[in-house]
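## retry 2 of 3
previous attempt timed out at serialization; input unchanged, resubmitting
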Amino acid sequence: MLLLLIDFGLVVLIWMTQLVVYPSFIHFQEQDLVRWHHKYTTNISYLVMPLMLAQLVFHLHGAYIDFHWWRTIALLLISFAWINTFMFAVPKHNNISAQTQVFESAKKLVKINRYRVLIWTSIFLINLLFTFLLK
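## retry succeeded, writing output
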């Protein structure tokens, strides 16, 4: 049940980011965005990183204790979320912080983040399905 809450936490966080946070970036003046962005990335990391790490650890533990094929799918999706985050999203955040291609990077974050929305929503739905319906 804790794993389901962790997965749901990431779903809520990523949908809020997709629908509210990233689209708001284009409404800032460049210097204001850079200043706000530093606060945003620092503070959001305190929420996102523990959730991402907990999700990975709990899914790995679940696969070790009680392996099912759906756990492999969830772990693959988690790996895609990590790849998307650290290979695609983080560099765009770094561009904003470095004041390089600020608004182009902000717009690309919305596009890049669509994949994480799909991934984390899928992980949650898979876990929900197998927790309650197919046990």
